[in-house]
Amino acid sequence: MKYPGLDLLRALAIVWVMLFHSFLVGGLGEDYSWLSRYGWMGVDLFFVLSGFLIGAQVLAPLARGGRLSFRDFYIRRAFRILPAFWVVLALYLAFPVLREAPGLEPWWKFATFTMNLSIDYANNAAFSHAWSLCVEEHFYLVFPLLAWAMLRKPSAAKFVGLCVLLVVAGIALRSVTWLHDTALAANGGLQRNWFVEDIYYPTWARLDGLLAGVVLAACKVFRPQCWERVQAQANTVLLLGLGVMAAALWLFKQRTGLLGNAIGWPVLALGLALLVFAGAGNRSVIARWRVPGAAWLAAISYSLYLVHKAVFHLVETAWGPALEGRGVVAFCVYGAAALLAGATLYYAVERPFLRLRERLPVFGRAVDVPAPAIKPFRDTGTA
Q1: Which residue in 139, 157, 257, 277 has the fewest CB atoms around it within 10 Å?
Q2: 173 burial level (CB within 10 Å; 0-12, 13-18, 19+)
Q3: Residue-wise pLDDT tens digits, 278-307
């Protein structure tokens, strides 16, 4: 089922990320800096959306007592992610003029989706936004296996316990890392961007958004009646989500501070998850609000994410001096160029491979891994 509210959130996420990355070309100016300051949160919104959509895709057949095909799942993900990614990576490797920064990590780190685990950000920042794709790929690899294993003997208590463990472990890991690195930096023993390399990029520090999305998916799949009851109050949930988001903004007043990086991430994930819940239905304001162009922007958002930094750099190289200080005009030129490039990549590469994926005979054949029939989790906490 198509949810316009989720398209709207995805469109907002990509625009927010692009506004944040406007720092590459000098920013939006003082009058508009508030638009871009927290734009990095757009990636976390993508994580929550991905956790929810992929989580539901994996959990739904298991809940019906069907079979989970790892083969089909991974092939579908490969056709969705890899073609456009490989094209952009090839362009970055073949044409250094496209790079928004001089240095680029070795190709094999991108090909194996390990770039986010060992990047030298100070010297190799080009195409560094691929870090989020690495996190997504790690999620795609591990989550189906974990879901299948846990649902062989399903238990709501076991699921809740794992979620709490992951949240607490994330808080502890980021806190210890922050304290350790700031102590070294204060003594002059850490000459690198430790925040990006040790906290912001690594997968193990960024599980909160994906986890929040998976929790939403589990609620929808295993507690459908409860889901529908709460959906009746979707606008109240939306307002609550905005309130939690306000708290997250306050926690991240200092983006690299201890408070935000200790507890700010799960608070942010909770706020975004509430917004996604409100969008994943038809009762809330954002679910009923048909914003012209939002669905199209959501459709090309992945391609747009891949190319927008390179496009910003090319526009700045060609017309930067002429656009400097021109505010809205510069914003429109950079944005239009990025949209054109993103749409080109989508229509030339991404969409054809998505259509090819649907024609492959592998989908619909016998699947790989049996699973027992699973009843919805009862409110008592057991299945």
Answers
A1: 157
A2: middle
A3: 999 999 999 998 899 999 999 999 999 999
Structural domain that includes position 276: 4-362
Structural domains in the chain (count): 1
Give the residue among 5, 54, 76 at the shortest CA–CA distance from 210: 54
User: Which two three-digit tokens encode residue 200?
Assistant: 């912001």
In a domain, 164, yes or no: yes
Alpha-carbon distance values, 110 to 5, 105, 340 (Å):
32, 8, 25
Q: Is residue 44 part of a domain?
A: yes
Facing residues of 370 across strands?
67
Tell me whether residue 275 is in a domain.
Answer: yes
Which pLDDT tens digit goes with each residue over 336-368? 999 999 999 999 999 999 999 988 876 544 334
Does some domain include residue 374? no
Helix (H) or strand (E) holding 79: helix 70-94
Cα 270 to Cα 208: distance, rounded to the nearest angstrom: 8
